[in-house]
Automatic annotation (TrEMBL):
Origin superkingdom: Archaea
Pfam families noted in UniProt: GCD14
The keyword Protein biosynthesis appears for this protein: no
Domain tRNA (adenine(58)-N(1))-methyltransferase catalytic subunit TRM61 C-terminal intervals: 79-225
GO molecular function, one term: tRNA (adenine(58)-N1)-methyltransferase activity
GO cellular component, one term: tRNA (m1A) methyltransferase complex
Keyword Transferase: yes
Keywords for the protein's UniProt record, in alphabetical order: Methyltransferase, S-adenosyl-L-methionine, Transferase, tRNA processing
Record's protein name: tRNA (Adenine57-N1/adenine58-N1)-methyltransferase
PROSITE patterns reported in the protein's UniProt record: SAM_TRM61
Amino acid sequence: MKLGEIVLLKTSHKGKIREFITSVSDEKFHSDFGMIEMSELLEKNEGDTVESHMGQTFVIQLPRMPDFFRHAKRTGTPIMPKDIGMILGYTGLNKNDTVLDAGTGSGILAMYLGSIAKRVLSFEVRDDFAEVARENIRRAGLDNVEVRCGNIVDEVKELDEKFDIVTLDTIDSATIVPYIPSILNPGGFLVTYSPFLEQTAQIRKAIAEIDFFEVRTIECIERAMSFSDRGTRPSTSRVGHTGYITIARL
Ligand SMILES: C[S@@+](CC[C@H](N)C(=O)[O-])C[C@H]1O[C@@H](n2cnc3c(N)ncnc32)[C@H](O)[C@@H]1O
């Protein structure tokens, strides 16, 4: 492993997995399982193990977006992986795309988008939230995701570049829709995410005023299965309602 590389250290304790995200350095990493000399990882590879001074064994992994999702500091309600999956699947986001995102919140969606796209520009109206998101993004090792503090309702009028995808997760998304043709490349996608149908109906009304193609509003229901000696069935604890996703292509 290299100096500065971000790593996930995983261990098992009383039948439960405990995990930590840190980076390879010449410093010590402390947890309730003891101290690890992080420079020891310079001699190791992904999948190898390292021991704390208390003899606790950790497996070394390279963190991926679902790991950053679990470990990111949260300011508001982030978009869940199931909904992110729909956004990626229906837009076909790729490595050449530039994305405009708002509001940043904890930066979860911006990070997932940034792990695939060329560049993500994300606007967050609250200074303190923007700072937390920047820290989450930095910890995820992404240098192509920029968080600017600003109100997207005003900022959208000032933008002098075009994007391939625009993702909106704000209460006022409907008011931004009329500006989308001036900032979205032809064939690009607008994606909005709203927890309520009333907001979604306003968004659909605004979209109907513009010549979009392939407009759809979807809700993604996640249903995990539970396996036990007694039988197999849908899990009784589940991810409930999250939000409605509207996707429109210009
Ligand atoms: C639900 S959170 C977004 C979560 C984010 N998509 C994520 O995955 O972490 C909504 C965020 O939008 C911000 N916001 C609300 N209105 C805004 C606006 N007009 N411009 C920019 N940010 C806004 C809020 O401060 C809040 O942080």
